[in-house]
Design a protein that fits this description.
heterodimer, A: mainly beta, 22-stranded antiparallel β-barrel, six-stranded mixed β-sheet, 5 helices, 5% helix, B: alpha+beta, three-stranded antiparallel β-sheet, 4 helices, 3 strands, 36% helix
Chain lengths: 762, 118
């Protein structure tokens, strides 16, 4: 017993001795409402020593005192660290204050604004938000101007709406999705891209060539997917204001809130307005529409990573009004066909020659979508996804004497299952799709209402040997009430022969029902008569469009002068088995007919990207298109399509200062070769155009001054060389006459334009 | 009755003997430091027949795998990993295998998280 006591004393003695030289105390949470709450887990240590302790559950600590140390550091993640001078053993009660979020150290890795995938089997270019800021793009249709994968074209002289093209084909041949739900299609084809405000876009993925079978059979030349900002990750408050010289104003407001650990919501409000009448070319027509748009979206995000559930719910409402035509047109008094209905006149309009030509395009749209995803917690490679969306799109419009009204009600549902075969080198996706499209369409006085439904199943297999081969093969079978039952095969292969090299090949089929009027609305703003050569088909008397797309591309990364770059070359060809030929070759009419003969679109592109000096990046591309179709007049190149295009973008940024301050400079040039114009030789001489439009170039630039992480200003200019088309409105002197045509637009109508704006975020 | 019990026992025994998990989850330490190591480790693990899923976390050096116990076991996976030059707790890679990794992946000197530099 004695020995035990002795032993005990011997063991305890040093502690007793040391207990004289201890610093004891408590660390208190200064951020808590009850400031006497202890802070467990805080670090307490002597500066320049190995001696340190952690506070216990109640925030208490006890650290041996050593005369050689004087500075006691108390720190905790999320709190400001404090250094106390301690010269003798004593009791301490110390309050730690939560650190200001703005002073947090954020380590950012540099990410390229445009990322090209080296490893995926598909030729995908990702544009992230940094790239979208290079041009103060007002909406999605304008956000591709700094990127060579997509060409931006002007659709008509009236609305100046920018249409996009890929591989030489217009947007109807692209599948445009928003978070993988088809979006710009059917009635919204012409203006749909202008309905997504630029600030709502988080990133864009552009896939060239045959896409995936997962989202349907409609894509022919490629897919553009837009990811919107997410309530959980977007700024709590974001405001963007924009104004340009031509009287266009935009305001974007985002408000995001995290409601609980799992729920977040965001309210996004966009408005734009143009009330100023512009006519720089003196043709008596507005150069840009008078416009008014309100766009409101509410998103709900649910995230429960522990149980594997993710969900999004979106509700959105849009009201878009455009007025175009002659400068002094007043829709309330000058609308011509209203006068006719008022007078109950039938038959051909009798005009007295004093009428004013005008047009209004009013769209209301309601969208809602739900996404539900479940990842099996025990099997991270296995998941189930469900997407459903409903949209109601109502466009009421008239163009002079022509009335065009369309209501499109759409339902889309996709159920998707992801898993593996054996191991994660062999993945598959399978599922079913259901789509309903109800169209209520009045074209002049003809009713083209119809209902389309389709149901389909798909299976897509992906093999990745984790090294140099990646392959995606997909197949879907669909049954559509007008397209019939058909299969859509698609294949993508990527092979890496050496480091940073990526060789890809793809082929696939696409099939679609062309919405000839919605897609070619510019025809209404002309005196052309509509001519459908009825072939007895199911869609406007026409057959479905059917095409195969083949492509190869090669991407090689390199380092030149110690700085990174990449070069890519690609060639794609789209071969139409059937196409609805849109024939503008007779200036008195527009004809739609099934392809009889050959039609193909080939595109070749070389692109070089390089950081030529530190922080100075150059992106440059040359593109060649051969898009030819057998018209009734013979095989012709597609009109209003430049065969040669050159693109360059130069971006320079200064080093980011500690508070986020930075300068950014951007300059883009597009050069377009000559474009074939539709035949106007049968017009009177005054209304004839040449066979080709002259080559020209366009330049845009923008300077952004970031003052801090919360505020930035930008100014920019578009069309800096002030190149405009001479006579965008053919027959402007007599808009109700037979020569009137606003559809032949090959260059900007608006001259040099400057804009300025700000972005504020919290 | 006896027969039923006997049958039940036999059936249960069979179930027990086949109660090898088809989706057995395991994690173990594997040394490495960067994205290249991650690729190499995961590829080696997935190369073992029966391994369905493998992901290696750079900062914690933890390799999580899901495997079919009927087809493989932890030792087989570890053997495959040391064969490409990455040490595990129980098995060390041979010097030859270790020296075959890219020079920037040589983790034995410096076992830090180097993911930010690659």
């Amino acid at each position: 017993m004695n020995t035990y006591i002795k032993l005990l004393i011997a063991v305890l003695l040093p502690f007793a001795a040391l207990s004289q030289d201890k610093v004891e105390g408590m660390v208190v949470d200064g951020g808590a409402i009850n400031t006497t709450l202890g802070l467990p887990g805080a670090n307490v240590y002597w500066m320049n020593s190995q001696i340190g302790v952690v506070t216990d559950f109640d925030g208490n600590f006890s650290i041996p005192y050593d005369a050689q140390y004087h500075k006691l550091i108390i720190s905790y993640v999320g709190f400001e660290s404090d250094t106390l001078t301690v010269d003798q053993p004593r009791k301490i009660k110390h309050t730690l204050n939560p650190s200001n979020a703005l002073n947090e150290v954020v380590v950012n890795q540099k990410r390229d604004a445009v990322q090209k995938a080296y490893f995926s089997s598909q030729n995908v270019v990702t544009i992230n938000s940094a790239e979208l800021l290079k041009a103060a793009c007002c909406n999605l249709s304008e956000s591709f101007e700094t990127n060579p994968a997509i060409d931006v074209n002007f659709s008509d002289a009236l609305t100046g709406t920018k249409q996009i093209q890929m591989l030489g084909l217009t947007s109807p041949y692209l599948l445009i999705t928003q978070e993988n739900i088809p979006m710009v299609r059917g009635a919204s084809q012409a203006y749909g891209l202008t309905f997504t405000p630029g600030t709502w876009v988080e990133s864009i993925q552009i896939t060239k060539g045959a896409g995936s079978v997962v989202n349907g059979y409609e894509s022919i030349s490629g897919q553009i997917n837009t990811e919107l900002v997410k309530p959980l990750t977007d700024n709590a408050v974001f405001v963007n204001g924009y104004a340009n010289q031509n009287g266009r104003y935009e305001l974007n407001t985002h408000l995001n809130k995290k409601l609980t650990e799992k729920w977040s919501t965001g309210l996004y409000i966009h408005g734009n307005k143009r009330t100023q009448k512009e006519d720089n070319n003196g043709d008596g027509f507005l150069d840009a529409p008078l416009a008014n748009q309100i766009n409101v979206m509410n998103r709900w995000q649910y995230q429960d990573p522990e149980n594997g559930w993710v969900s999004f719910l979106n509700v959105r409402f849009l009201n878009d009004e455009k007025q175009v035509g002659q400068l002094n047109f007043n829709p309330d008094t000058d609308r011509v066909d209203q006068k006719f209905t008022a007078a109950n006149q039938l038959g051909a309009p009798v005009l007295n020659g004093t009428e004013i030509w005008g047009s209004e395009i009013n769209t209301r749209r309601f969208d809602t979508s739900l996404k539900l995803g479940y990842v099996f917690p025990e099997l991270p490679f296995q998941s189930v996804g469900f997407q459903t969306s409903y949209s109601l799109h109502k466009q009421d419009s008239y163009f002079g004497l022509n009335t065009y009204d369309i209501t499109h009600e759409s339902i889309y549902t996709n159920l998707l299952f992801n898993s593996i075969i054996g191991d994660t080198k062999n993945k598959f996706k399978t599922g079913v799709t259901f789509a309903y499209d109800g169209y209520d369409e009045m074209v002049l006085t003809d009713d083209y209402s119809r209902v389309d439904t389709s149901i389909g199943a798909f299976f897509e297999f992906n093999y990745d040997n984790l090294d140099n081969v990646n392959l995606t093969a997909g197949l879907r079978v669909d049954n559509h009430n007008r397209l019939g039952t058909f299969v859509t095969p698609r294949l993508h292969v990527r092979y890496t022969p050496w480091e940073k090299g990526s060789l890809r090949g793809s082929f696939g089929r696409g099939k679609r029902a062309a919405n000839i009027f919605a897609e070619n609305q510019q025809l209404f703003a002309s005196s052309r008569t509509i001519n459908i050569t009825n072939a007895g088909g199911d869609i406007y008397g026409l057959d479905p469009e059917d095409a195969w797309n083949y492509g190869v591309s090669f991407l090689q990364g390199f380092t030149f002068l110690d700085r990174p770059g990449n070069v890519s070359v690609d060639f794609y060809k789209t071969d139409f088995k059937n196409q609805i030929v849109v024939d503008w070759e007779n200036p008195r009419e527009i004809s739609f007919y099934n392809l009889d003969g050959k039609s193909s679109a080939s595109s070749f592109q070389v692109e070089v990207n390089h950081e030529i000096l530190p922080k100075l990046e150059l992106r440059t591309a040359y593109k060649y298109y051969d898009v030819n179709t057998d018209y009734t007049a013979g095989n012709l190149q597609k009109p209003l399509q430049a065969q040669h295009r050159y693109f360059a973008n130069l971006g320079y940024t200064t080093e980011v200062k500690e508070n986020g301050a930075q300068w950014r400079f951007d300059y883009t040039v597009h050069a377009l070769g000559k474009q074939r114009l539709p035949d106007t030789s049968s017009n009177e001489e005054a209304y004839q155009l040449g066979a080709y439009a002259d080559p020209y170039s366009l330049m845009n630039g923008q300077i952004t001054r970031v003052f801090s992480n919360t505020f930035e200003l930008y100014i920019g200019g578009e069309n800096l060389t002030n190149h405009t088309q001479d006579n965008p409105v053919l027959g402007a002197d007599n808009p109700f006459g037979s020569n009137f045509d606003t559809s032949i637009v090959y260059a900007p109508i608006m001259g040099r334009m400057f804009y300025a704006g700000f972005r504020f975020k919290l | 009755m006896k027969k039923i019990i006997l049958t039940a026992v036999v059936v249960l025994m069979a179930t027990i003997s086949y109660a090898q998990d088809k989706n057995k989850k395991m994690t173990f330490d594997v040394n490495g430091k960067c994205g290249m190591c991650k690729e190499r480790i995961e590829k080696a693990a997935l190369g073992v027949k029966g391994v369905k899923f493998a992901t290696w976390d750079i900062p914690s050096h933890q390799l999580s795998v899901i495997m079919d116990e009927n087809k493989t076991d932890a030792m087989k996976i570890k053997t495959a990993i040391v064969a490409v030059g990455h040490d595990t707790k129980e098995l060390k890679a041979t010097d030859e295998a270790y020296n075959s990794v890219h020079p920037c992946c040589l983790y034995r000197e410096d076992n830090s998280d180097d993911s930010g530099h690659h």
